[in-house]
Design goal:
This protein is an alpha+beta fold. It has 2 helices and 4 strands. A hairpin with a 7-residue loop joins strand 1 and strand 2.
Length: 69
């Protein structure tokens, strides 16, 4: 596992603490097939995959990867 470059880490943190918390369903798109139940959002060259648990009112960021992967 590699670390995010500092400039993209700041973008990801800003996204997670802003639009993702405010409206997680609108911040990304729902995924299908084996990733059904997850959502993905793009920020720069990175994709953020997350799961929304409405019952617990929790958003879990599952993965952050470079989109070219």
């Amino acid at each position: 596992m590699s670390l995010l470059p500092e400039r993209f880490a700041a973008v990801v943190v800003e996204f997670v603490l802003g639009p993702l918390v405010e409206n997680p369903h609108r911040a990304g798109k729902p995924l299908a097939r084996e990733l059904a139940g997850y959502h993905a959002a793009r920020r720069g060259p990175y994709r953020i995959v997350y799961r929304i648990d409405g019952a617990l009112r929790r958003i879990e960021v599952v993965r952050i990867d470079h989109r070219a992967m």
